[in-house]
Amino acid sequence: MKRxxxxxxxxxxxxxxxxxxxxxxxxxxxxxxxxxMEHEGHWVSGMNNSVVWGMPHVFAVxxxxxxxxxxxxxxxxxxFKKPIYKPLGRLSGLLAVAMLMGGLLVLVMDLGRPERxxxxxxxxxxxxxxxxxxxxYTGFMAIVIAYLWSMADRQxxxxxxxxxxxxxxxxxxxxxxxxxxxxxxxxxxxxDAAILGPMFVALSFAYGxxxxxxxxxxxxxxxxxxxxxxxxxxxxxLLALFIGIALYFTLIYHLTNLYMAKNDSLEHWLLLSGGIxxxxxxxxxxxxGSLAPMWILYHPVLSQKREWIIGACALVIVGGFSAMYVIxxxxxxxxxxxxxxxxxxxxxxxxxxxxxxxxxxxxxxxILLGVGGVAVALxxxxxxxxxxxxxxxxxxxxxxxxxxxTLDAAPxxxxx
Amino acid sequence: xNENATRIASTSDETPASTVDAGRRxxxxxxxxxxxxxxxxxxxxxxxxxxxPRSEPVTDSVRWGLLIxxxxxxxxCSACVDACDRENGLDLQEPHxxxxxxxxxxxxxxxxxxxxxxxxxxxxxxxxxxxxxxxPPCVDVCPTxxxxxxxxxxxMVDRHLCIGCRxxxxxxxxxxxxxxxxPTTGQLTAVPRGKGCVESCNLCVHRRDHGEExxACVDACxxxGHGAIVFGDLKDPDSAISQRLREIPSRQIREDLVLNTGVxxxxx
Lengths: 416, 268
Description:
The complex is a heterodimer of chains A (416) and B (268). Chain A is mainly α and 416 residues long. Chain A has 13 helices and 3 strands. Chain A is globular. Chain B is an alpha+beta fold. Chain B has 2 domains: 2-51; 64-266, Alpha-Beta Plaits. In chain B, the strands form 4 sheets. Chain B has a 3-stranded mixed beta sheet. A two-stranded antiparallel ribbon of chain B has the order 2-3. Strand 2 of chain A pairs antiparallel with strand 2 (110-117) of chain B.
């Protein structure tokens, strides 16, 4: 076992700058989309008075929960004292802050009155989970930045563990808070479920780790830094486990709904006759996003192959976007039960006449705005790893620590 | 007057600085003063006029509400909806995008709904609008407090605080709120509207503040001879609405949510 040495990301400048240029171009296009939607008004988007949150929210919520999930790696190293994860802690923290920034930007850019952001910063209604989230999100960034300092600076060493615990508790609160944005809404059948809070935590584990693994493997590959089979085995098994946990929560959510007669129509629609939402649920969320990557990750041969692991991570992300689309948009598209036990025959405001779902198709500016959020997250990460020492030089088997740490063992590696 | 002042100012620029004309200078001063007075005075005047009837704060000694007798609500009649649109300037909305899309994006404060009981087949007509809950979910979820309940029970949106996040629309069990998706033009003075904000029925709050009785929908329904909607103070036992509520069976929509709505329905 050797000392862990962290180094800046030193890929050739032309390759680095073309990557930054590409990301900056995506951000520029997103800025134009934002300007277009704000100038014209939201009528140019696919959102309407029934489906009030659309594609930007799919991207934003995915980024926000993936952000908290990405921090898990640091927590496992610091709080749960698994030394093999320690060298990954810094990148984990950076990615968490970057994705949260990207997600929040998308959320803010989609407001009807984004210029009034200062109003949201100065007027709080504390019965709103949204108002709490403003503190949870900004607090998360501050705590993770302190966490990064404690990981990277010698003087921060003694604070590493307490900050790590605080960061873990905070991230659990943050993701529960994000799930509760939906879980506390009594108005809509698909949302009126407290399980959405913990379910979002479970989803965040999988999405955050999948993004983290992709970024890690891309960063290491580009520069020829090695990742040993032991590290890959740990990460891949962890991802498979997290997918399993997310599936478990998904199963319980739907079983609960299926058990209640009042939610029969919702489940029947979502699982069988919901068109795009049914397709995205079964094919996107369950098959492509959960079962297929689990099969790859537990397959005796395929799980040894790097390309297949990368593929599994990508599938988890595709599944994540499908899940967000179903949870955020599908749940709004299903008509509200204004008059339980009745069928609405006519309405002047599209109240689900004869049980029809509300229409929504994402428009190009909405999608480009969301992609811009992803680009912001990646840009922050790319700049971070280039200028500061976030990534270890090697994760080869002879460098990383043994898998387990005994209680009386001394810390295995000091920061370089 | 402004034009004169500008023209005079430009001529004075050409005059050599040594020959200052005191009379001309005085004239410019007076012109500028009058212009300023002309600009500011209407604002001051309007303010003082408008402030008079609204000088007292709203109190919780009243709670405004509606009672809708669905038996009297006529099939094919949209008088209440049309009146609301006129009263609040919603008829001035200009369609944007395709017709089918606009149907889902335009602002609607009150709509007619025809529903059928799944078991018995009984058909009911009713107008649906903001139910002015005692415990409004839209107020609970609003991050800035823009969605608020007045002391007199009216639930409405402060258009200066609304950031357009639409969380209230997610939370409302009655789908009562609309987001303004398009730029607004030619709005009414009494009902300011703005792109990017959320809005909904406010029980004709401008009428309340000027001490007028009833709402636009109630007047229109009565004019049509249906009289299906009664407006009044739920706290006053002698008000027409309270008396009627004592006489006939009524209920709240989504009573299971226990929001204690200010709008009640008979015959649903």
